[in-house]
Design a protein that fits this description.
DNA-binding, KilA_N, globular, KilA/APSES_HTH, DNA binding, 2 domains, DNA-binding protein
């Protein structure tokens, strides 16, 4: 992939750039999905949310040894008040953040590491994030082997069309509400917390039920389930950071997975891809 590369997401051009082998995606372009004329305003609204700041702060703690935690604590304490506002420039200057940056010129705008960009896309629209993730994956596959690229976006989605057009399959894909016994059960692996929330079983339980299947429980997941799983990974990290117990996190993640799967399966955009 070149330094700057454009992908097409639901008719919107989204620029991707690479810095030190990490991919950064234009938040300015993503914001245009919600309002093409007020992208800066949309981005500022997202950044003034306390949950957004907690996620950004956690990402910086994990990836940036020079992150200014003292300034971050001050910002977090102000979040939620009516007078509070936050811009990318202020965030970068006050916390020495590296997950977001702004630049001018032909490929200008506000960019963010893909982890953060996908989080922003979720806030904009779960459906839009699905298309963004798929197009980004296509770009990465093209980067790995441009001479053998045979993957096609429309063809890939056609494989799941039958699954998203019948109520019976929708009911099968949407996660079940966990019972109190399942919620209280302690799982050794954090990955199985996500598996339980989304699939209703652990990786070992799935293997027991499917001894002849190749791969694992996540290899058999639908595109929609993988998008929700990606969302839950970042949400779970934030919940752990906030000190929430495992049982509380499992209950909340299960509720989130049900809500997001329902939203994705009802997305009008997917219904049109026949």
């Amino acid at each position: 992939m070149s330094k700057n590369h454009k992908i097409e997401v639901q008719g919107i051009a989204v620029w991707v750039t690479k810095i030190n082998e990490d991919d950064y995606i234009s938040l300015t372009d993503i914001a245009r999905q919600k309002d093409a004329t007020r992208s800066d305003y949309i981005l500022q609204n997202w950044m003034r949310n306390r949950s957004t700041l907690e996620y950004l702060g956690l990402w910086e703690h994990l990836n940036n040894p020079d992150f200014n935690s003292i300034e971050f604590d001050g910002i977090k304490n102000q979040a939620g008040s009516n007078s509070f506002s936050m811009t990318p420039k202020r965030w970068i200057e006050q916390t020495n953040a590296i997950g977001i940056f702004s630049k001018t010129g032909r490929y200008g705008g506000t960019f963010a590491h893909r982890d953060i960009a996908f989080e922003f896309a979720s806030w904009i629209s779960a459906e839009f994030k699905l298309y963004l993730v798929v197009e980004f994956q296509r770009l990465k596959k093209e980067e790995e082997d441009p001479g053998k690229l045979t993957w096609n976006f429309q063809r890939m989605l056609s494989k799941v069309n039958y699954a998203i057009h019948t109520d019976a399959v929708k009911e099968k894909l949407i996660p079940q509400i966990l019972n109190p016994h399942q919620i209280k059960y302690v799982y050794a692996d954090e990955a199985d917390i996500l598996n339980m929330a989304l699939f209703g079983m652990t990786a070992r339980e799935w293997r027991t039920l499917n001894p002849n299947e190749k791969g694992n429980i996540r290899d058999m997941a639908s595109i929609e389930q993988l998008v929700v799983l990606s969302n839950m990974e970042s949400i779970n990290a934030m919940l752990i950071h906030n000190g929430m117990t495992q049982a509380e996190r499992l209950k909340q993640l299960n509720e989130i997975s049900i809500s997001q799967m329902t939203s994705l399966l009802q997305a009008n955009g997917l219904k049109k891809l026949k």
